[in-house]
Amino acid sequence: MADVKIRGLHKRYGAFEAVRGIDLEIPDGEFTVLVGPSGCGKSTLLRTIAGLEDVSEGEIEIGGEIVNDMRPRDRDVAMVFQDYALYPHMTVAKNIGFGLKARKLPPAEIEARVQTAAAMLGITGLLGRYPRQISGGQRQRVAIGRAIVRSPRIFLFDEPLSNLDAQLRDEMRGEIKRLHRDISTTMIYVTHDQIEAMTLADRIVLMRDGLIEQQGAPLDLFERPATTFVAGFLGSPKMTFLPGRLSRNGTAASILVDGGLRLDLPAGRALGGAEGRSVIVGVRPEHIYRAADAAGPGEARLDAAIELLQPTGSRTYATFRIGGIPVTAELEAHDAGRPGDIVPLGINLNRVSLFDADTQRAI
Amino acid sequence: MAAATRPVRRRRRVRIPVARILLLGFFVAFVLVPLYWMFNTSIKPSDDYLAIPPVWWPSEPTLVHYEAALFAYRGLDGLINSVIVSTAATVLSALLGTLMAYSLARYNTGGQHLSFWVLSQRFLPPIAIVLPVFLIYRGIGIYDTHLGLILAYTVFTLPVSVWMMYAYFRGMPRSLEEAAMVDGCTRWRAFWTVAVPLAAPGIVAAAVFAFIACWTEFFFALLLTSRNAFTLPTVFRAFIGFQGAQYGEAAALAIVSLGPSIVLGVLAQRHLVRGLTLGAVRG
Description:
- The complex is a heterodimer of chains A (about 375) and B (about 280).
- Chain A is an alpha+beta fold and about 375 residues long.
- Helices cover about 25% and strands about 35% of the residues of chain A.
- Chain A is built from eight helices and 21 strands.
- Chain A has a six-stranded mixed β-sheet, with helices on both faces. Chain A has a five-stranded antiparallel β-sheet with strand order 13-12-11-14-21. A four-stranded antiparallel β-sheet of chain A has the order 2-1-4-5, with helices on one face.
- In chain A, strand 9 and strand 10 form a beta hairpin.
- Chain B contains twelve helices and two strands, in the order αααααααααααββα.
- Chain B has a two-stranded antiparallel sheet.
- In chain B, strand 1 and strand 2 form a beta hairpin.
- The relative contact order of chain B is 0.14.
- In chain B, helix 4 (about 75-105) runs parallel beside helix 7 (about 145-170) and helix 5 crosses helix 7 (about 145-170).
- Chain B has about 280 residues and is mostly helical.
- Chain B has helices at about 1-15, 20-40, 65-70, 75-105, 115-120, 125-140, 145-170, 175-185, 185-215, 220-225, 230-235, 245-275; strands at about 240, 245.
- The chains are: A alpha+beta (about 375), B mainly alpha (about 280).
- The interface of A and B includes residues 88 and 150 of A.
């Protein structure tokens, strides 16, 4: 059990800077997910915590101890790799017990702890097999078993589910969450999958180009994204960005979206800035609904010509255009009409995000 | 439909792959006939060597050529020297080659160029260095010793060993050793407990190549040894002299010298095939 503190971390490979100054504090027992697109530095950051990469600048502290110059084996962390990294020439039992053997525990204790870990993950029947004889999901369980058997201070996960098929991924995601609830050790988890990030994390650290773009609780990031990048990264289908201009009428403010739609902002969302200020309105599919009779406060109305329908069963994604930009709305399955229909829709203006068009930051 | 297709099928079933059998037959003959003839010659009385018509099986097989080759011509001493020198050089070459290849593959030692420089040592014609080596060996007193030949053979086989192992280690995922290091191993221990066992097929293949190269090497053995450390290949030159060629003795010693290679080949065959695919086979 330990907390992690990272201060001013840089990692350079020659001229290329993968991590460009990260400050991050991860409290003891928290499940932190590092998420971001490929090449954002999240895996590099994780590997510097593991000690598999040197630090170019800055400090990493685990449990109150600066570990910059400590070898991976002395950091007392466990890591689960994307390709599982099971030792092909050892049985499952030997794989799980390998770390204990390397630390010279007595064989009887290794045996007992391997059994406990295997029972926890439901892989007792596989202990005598070799990695090539078991399935991908089972391999991932073995890799997790190899991590938990050591009771490390910190668990590190490097995209552990990305090689699994969709169904198995959902299942393993649940198991990792349950594992964290049961052993409540600090976990740092790298993924590029925003659903994994949302479902697993106590806290999401969203990275971009070697820097932290925003960090916080999953719903905070989802509902109050600091930038258009965060807003676009989280959520599926993606948030739609509609460029527009601020218009003032006394104390009331509204936004004229390019293409003619007028959004009268509710009183709680008053905007600063001069008349004509360029803004971006971020609308998520679930901010749009099939409209009832009359427009209420904080609601915008439009009649949308449905271009495309994507039913998912319980909900249907309907695509239409505002000012030439395709917008996706998440509608009740039976409200969506048919392609070509004109459907009255409402937009909940209390929930849309507003960004400055120049800085791309939330207003 | 069924009636129409039946005759076609029947004809296909009785067709004999004549071309294939002929081709394979030629190949088998190409490989085995010389070996047979060598064995045949080794047990023939001397008068039968060049008899016309050829003697396909001697009426009175004899082992006198073996006796002469092994003892009178000191073939047995050459055999023992060859075993000592080839084995030692092979072990050294495999050991150093594995370490060096790992260093090149994982630490990118020497940048882009060192690995190629290693291979470039094979571009050098041996004759260009044999005289300097001869003089150095004389000067430091390892001329005509096992040690001298072992050193020379290790140096000559190392480039190929390094390159075979280099390809092998590069094909091996880094995450295996990283997992071992996070699990509690030093780099050195991760190398021995994870990387080396997984590279075993490659190491065996490289070792077999090195052994065969040492076992059959003639040129350096001829110039760097004399009466003490001479190896098996150098014994053969004694069979061609002013009296004419000693076919029987040459054939007998050739049969003897095949022994270790065949044993090695059989033992290592499974590893050899996997090793030659150079890390492509995983898990």
